[in-house]
Design brief:
The structure is a homodimer. Chain A is α+β, with helices and mostly antiparallel strands. The first copy, chain A, has helices at 36-49, 78-87; strands spanning 22-28, 56-63, 68-75, 94-97, 100-101.
């Protein structure tokens, strides 16, 4: 009889035993004139489906004058973040893994 | 004898009676390969002099692969943030007031 042993490290497994998470900052452009309510609605649309890709959206900050939104998330991959934003109706223009934080 | 009255509103005065504060996101580029320690040193250099301009740096996130850093602050003006970064030795390439947040 053969035994196999698996070791799951802290780096590879989250508290839920899931995939390793990385922090991402994505950027949306052309959102000139966005209101607080529209920003909130967009965020809620993300939150409603984020668990399907294992993404956790944390914050979003908007500059309505220049139409730029910065969106911070914890996710298993950049593609997962992009898919949620796409499905929620507001694809991101740019995304960066930001593993360093102070 | 003449009296002058000044009214300071909640919008114009912080808890310390100072200027109104706005949230800013600034962006630094060309920081490819930055380490966690270098990011921390840069942040500490900002923190050491931020009070001279009434700025409060809150967070910074770095993408060492693409050399981009996002830096979040509360400040009386974009110029105040830019002056601190400049004096600390790492001028920002871009800055946005981000008055909306979720």
């Amino acid at each position: 009889m053969k035994h196999r042993f698996y070791q799951v490290t802290g780096d590879l497994a989250g508290a839920d035993g899931g995939k390793a998470m990385t922090k991402f900052m994505d950027v949306h452009r052309g959102m000139n004139g966005i209101s607080a309510e529209q920003l909130n609605q967009a965020h809620q649309a993300d939150l409603a489906i984020q668990s399907e890709e294992g993404v956790v959206f944390e914050h979003a900050w908007a500059d309505p004058d220049e139409g730029v939104i910065y969106c911070l998330s914890d996710a298993p991959s950049a593609e997962a973040v992009m898919r949620i934003h796409q499905r929620a109706g507001h694809p991101a223009d740019e995304i960066h893994a930001v593993p360093l934080e102070v």
